[in-house]
């Protein structure tokens, strides 16, 4: 499979009231999501997030954190939070559908029935919706968050991540058209430069056979050094930007621990949340929380592609010794040092006493993995797939050029593209590094509005490389990927918006008129529910009632049976 | 367009080809400037918040995940 596996990206966006920077971000986030749920989706969406399968306190190291000892911000499975401030009506009543009795019934992967809750007043704001592209769009803490649908390749990850940018942009535009609602600007970044950080998390489904200690050992030096090619760049150093100057990563200064369950405080390099949303005996979900939000498509593509192919190597079970030897003496300190070293030339201390630069460490990874992919191809007689070959070639090329000619990488490497214009303005106007105009440029870099965003201006001027066709992005706003369970989720929402009361990664809850109960269809295998699997079935049923009758009456077609 | 760009400047800053008022830019950064960057900077001048200091001060977010 190499770079191909189930993966996805969750992005919390920065939010700011235009002309009203003090406006309540929780309320604005709810308004943004609600505007899209009501106006942005054909037919509207009443499907809400179902919290039944959430277990955010399960730790990959094999235990569960007691709820009473968890920080409140870790309890992400409580549908009554976050709530807008003040006296706004409740939200997220969505999950309340989960309250009923369950009785197994039907034949299709265990469709179950739930008692239909009593009719409830429609809340004025919704905190949590499922989009027809299979994504989850909701309010997390004080930010609107887009969790992309499950995809199987880094290029598809870029497509549905870019679709997320468009969803957010359209939400703000729709909101601005509603009388009395605020105008908001949205930012795809990870810090306000004043001590707050919000995340862009990558998720990778990994074979359960890989020992978690291997993930810690082999991913730590990789994640610490990968910002050299996928960092988004940030003006200011330190969590509050205490020191003037530029750095490679948005997120690095907020890394404070090597391994841990937390995501909102003492953020670790390796996050141990172990909620696979799949068969837990076969898979774990690696939740990477140290990455930057990228505007550059190449940065997102390589961030996902290189991480995925490293996980493939770990799944092979035989990791070359060269990788074991890359253990860092001080991973957290190294994460900060890598981000602050614009020369890319400062060596890091390794546990075995050697010293290597971030680029030298990345060179070992790319060479070891390229050799392993080559050997695998020879052994199996099959060439690596196109994206795997492309990711490896680009990765190797960038590691070489970042050392020899970094200025040549600005079209592909986001932190260098931003540095190019920041430094251009700084020298043209003779500004100090802490000048507000440079700080404004850094923040406006990721403003989603094409008329205001600096990245958008760079893209329009063809100063950065694009990977996906705008028409593909447009389609990905309203259509799910076809090769994961997101297809069934998204298509069900798109075709039967009135017949779905809730959904989550693991299940869809149908509310079919005339039926006594809600019906919960599990989607526990991320590789089922694909177009190949259920496309004909969906096409054959014009309404949800008929689809559900078919699902509960006949065994599903086998995945292998093709059309 | 050009005149508007200057109007939008928060505080007019000396151009590098004026008399240098402070320490000269470093050699590396000076060589990074090229025609494409100059053209991009013209566009950025057009869209950059006119009161950069107020904008930056007001950009306050709540912590997230």
Walk me through the structure:
The complex is a heterodimer of chains A (563) and B (65). With 563 residues, chain A is an alpha+beta fold. Among the domains of chain A are: 276 residues, no CATH class; 88 residues, no CATH class. In chain A, 36% of the residues lie in helices and 16% in strands. A 6-stranded antiparallel beta sheet of chain A has the order 6-7-8-1-10-15. In chain A, helix 2 packs across helix 5, helix 3 runs antiparallel to helix 5 and helix 3 crosses helix 8. Chain A is globular. About 5% of the residues of chain A have low confidence. Chain B has 65 residues and is mainly α. In chain B, 51% of the residues lie in helices and 0% in strands. Chain B has 4 helices and no strands. The longest helix of chain B has 13 residues. Chain B is elongated, with a radius of gyration of 15 Å. Chains A and B meet through strand 2, helix 10, helix 11 and helix 12 of A and helix 2, helix 3 and helix 4 of B.
Task: Report the biggest beta sheet of chain A as strand number plus sense, adding barrel if it closes.
Answer: 6 strands, antiparallel
Low-confidence stretches of chain B: 1-32
Could you report the average pLDDT of chain B, rounded to the nearest whole number?
A: 67
Helix content of chain B: 40-55%
Helix percent band of chain A: 25-40%
Summed over residues and divided by their number, the pLDDT of chain A gives a mean of: 89
Shape of chain B: elongated
Cα end-to-end separation of chain B: 42 Å
How many β strands of chain B by DSSP?
0
How many distinct helices of chain A? 16
Report Rg of chain A: 23 Å
Give the helix/strand layout.
The complex is a heterodimer of chains A (563) and B (65).
Chain A: E1 7-12, E2 14-17, H1 25-40, E3 48-49, E4 102-104, E5 112-115, E6 128-130, E7 136-140, E8 143-147, H2 154-176, E9 184-187, E10 200-207, H3 212-225, H4 227-230, E11 234-237, E12 243-247, E13 255-260, E14 267-271, E15 283-288, H5 297-315, H6 321-324, H7 331-340, E16 348-349, E17 355-356, H8 358-380, H9 386-404, H10 414-429, H11 436-444, H12 454-460, H13 470-478, H14 486-495, E18 500-504, E19 507-510, E20 517-522, H15 531-540, H16 544-553
Chain B: H1 2-8, H2 27-32, H3 35-47, H4 52-58
